[in-house]
Amino acid sequence: MTAPRRILLTGASSGLGREMARHLAGPGVAFLLCGRRADALKAVATELRDAGATVETALVDLTDVAAAQDWVDTCAVQPVDLAILNAGMFDGRGRDGALESPMRAAVQVETNLTAPVTLGLRLADHMRDAGQGTILFISSLGAFSAHADAPSYSASKAGLTAFARALREDLAPDGVRVAIAHPGHIETPQTEVHRGPLPGIMPAARAAKVILSGLARGRSEIDFPGHLRWGLRFQSLLPWRMQARINRGLRFWVDDGPGDGKGK
Ligand SMILES: NC(=O)c1ccc[n+]([C@@H]2O[C@H](COP(=O)([O-])OP(=O)(O)OC[C@H]3O[C@@H](n4cnc5c(N)ncnc54)[C@H](OP(=O)(O)O)[C@@H]3O)[C@@H](O)[C@H]2O)c1
Fold first, then answer.
1. Is there a domain that residue 261 lies in?
2. pTM for the full model?
3. Is pLDDT above 80 for 3?
4. The ligand 1 atom nearest the CA atom of 41
5. Of 18, 152, 199, 217, which is least surrounded by CB within 10 A?
6. Closest Cα to atom 34, ligand 1: which residue?
7. How many domains are there within the chain?
């Protein structure tokens, strides 16, 4: 794969998105970045410009489907070589033992599934017209392990993986490539609120490198760490009660600070 020059990236203001941008930055690279936090996005943009890239930023709440579509259309006035749909959020059982409320689950599904699905479809149109481009979806190993403490997160990531695989098949004859990353736990603000075991957790810079070097090598699915991926493959063959028994050692809750009452 030749080095992408025009790169659209959602969720660039922190964590994995910021590290992927750092990894890709250099002279001749044009970034199209979005996030909701102006200060954080501005700081990333300054750093990337210092590394020689050009950067356009947009403050977009991706749960606003119309605004997100407008942003993509603006970005695609020139062909986008690589679109990384990375933005996401994590919610689950709270300190009080209750699962997230239906409203919080809805926001999670809008952010992790509806947004990348609708953006992916729009980008597919633009890239099909251009006859080139790559879309990289950031899913999660959570797509392969439904977890009792995070049902809507599990569902959003499983749904995203199914969508991306279907889109990949549809776009392949048009010269547009779709890749999916399924990372395990990464040191980002997302895991800072996770209260429970985090097996195989790795720094965000390392995760970014694994994803982008896998993409550069032409891989369609980039799943890591390998031991967890293979463990989940094996686990998925077991009856659900045995799967639940294994998951018992990995129970967690999500810390929203004092007074957290997600079930309310
Ligand atoms: N950390 C992990 O262990 C892990 C594991 C597997 C997969 N992942 C996935 O990796 C991706 C990046 O997560 P991260 O760990 O780097 O978390 P993070 O540091 O919390 O970053 C999330 C990013 O998404 C953006 N975002 C969230 N909601 C948004 C919205 N409604 N509109 C626009 N932007 C929004 C945030 O930007 P603003 O706040 O500025 O809007 C931020 O830049 C997510 O899809 C996550 O599910 C993470």
1. no
2. 0.96
3. no
4. 40
5. 217
6. 35
7. 1
